Amino acid sequence: MARSEREWDLRTTLVHAGERIPPQAGYPTVHDIVVSNSFVPESPEAADAILGGQRHGYTYSRHNNPTVDALAEAVRRLEGGECGLAYSSGMAAVHAALLATAVAPGDAIVVSRDLYGASINLTQELFAPFGVTVVQANLVDLEEAASVLRRVRPKVVLFEVLSNPLLRVVDGAALTAMAHDVGAQVIVDNTFTTPLLVRPLEFGADLVVHSATKYLGGHGDAVGGVVVTYQRYYERMHRQQKLLGAVLGPFEAWLIHRGLKTLALRFERQCDNAAALAERLVASGRFRRVHYPLLPDHPEHDRIRHVTRDGRGGAVVTLELPGGKPEVFEFLRSLELVVPATTVGDVYSLALYPVMASHRSQTPEERAAMGITEGTVRIAVGIEAVEDIAEDLIAAADRVAATRK
Question: For residue 355, what pLDDT is reported?
């Protein structure tokens, strides 16, 4: 017979004291960080039902965690889906979404030619070796897209509405309708646009992916990913997540969830800053080209205004510097305010060199086909005063020009 708590040895009390206290009246205004790796349901029968999938509950954090579920639920509501799952990174989320479509040997995946480089690499390195055909296509051009879809008849189509890094604009509604006409499922990476600009499920997408590391978290302190989709995908995705272990930690989930609360404030400011910055950089005459969807010379200038919810053009501006890698390296070294780091979405402005980072694995020929040159630099615009951001970029360009004389 077990001894009562008062009779435990101090060594035992040290282990158990203060744990598993029943919930008290009242609840916190901010969701808890639940770091426990396991949970104790109210009975063995309850545990059996949870593990068997007959009811929702918690037994093990690789299966479910309350803090992680809170984040997934928040993003689900933002995107208007039926269910959401959070992952250890944006790339894990892309992988999970592709697996959810049950793509198999003999099937084809059509990916946007302008897609984030690592997402292209994922399809080529993890799916193509197992007999899945991967086709890159210019999905910005709807005529070309229609031709490729009719010819390939893919199982999956994967694209971004606003591409990384050249900010090409896909007509997601038209493309999704064409994909469904040939029996394809549609995955949209909504990282660059966020639900504030685009809600892909509203135009018929099947799965929406976020690198929550970026705008959703927004403060450069957490890595994570989220997929929002329909209930018909949930069981497959949840089972695969448990098997692969691509789960988000509770600390990261809590940080990203906290970041969501200021997403509208941050992102609206970043978008407004980006639009103003693009105009200032064009007016400066220091750059070979400035890419931003609201600029009159952008090829999808007219499209962006009806594709996004409020006509904004996103929070990224991409520059073309004269020269190549040496000039870009000098430009990055000369920056004093803008941070040369390989991400987007933080409150501070960031500069990335696609040739070195996001599209490093693409060949020079593949980058050229996308329009990425040796002088391309992506600026993820922060919430600073736009005058300071512009001054820093222009001053860095001037220092590069001075070294070339």
Answer: 85
The residue annotated as part of the active site, out of 58, 116, 215, 353, is 116
Given the residues 62, 242, 303, 305, the one annotated as active site? 62
Catalytic residue among 113, 155, 199, 214: 214
Question: How is the chain split into domains, by residue range?
Answer: 44-260, 263-404
67's enclosing H/E stretch is helix 66-79
Examine the residue annotation and report whether 3 is marked as an active-site residue of this protein.
no
Residue tagged active-site, from 69, 114, 171, 189: 189
Q: Residue 256, exposed/middle/buried by CB under 10 A (0-12, 13-18, 19+)? A: buried
Could you tell me how many residues make up the chain? 405
Residue range 44-260, CATH number: 3.40.640.10
In CATH, the number for domain 263-404 is 3.90.1150.10
Over residues 191-208, the mean pLDDT reads 98
Confidence label for 2 from pLDDT (cuts 50, 70 and 90): very low
pTM for the full predicted model: 0.93
114 in active site: no
Please give the C-alpha separations between residue 205 and each of 24, 48, 89, in angstroms, as whole numbers.
Answer: 42, 35, 21
**Residue 312 annotated in active site:** no
Known catalytic residue at 62: yes
How many beta carbons lie within 10 A of that of residue 297, not counting itself? Answer: 10
Please tell me what DSSP assigns to residue 322.
Answer: S
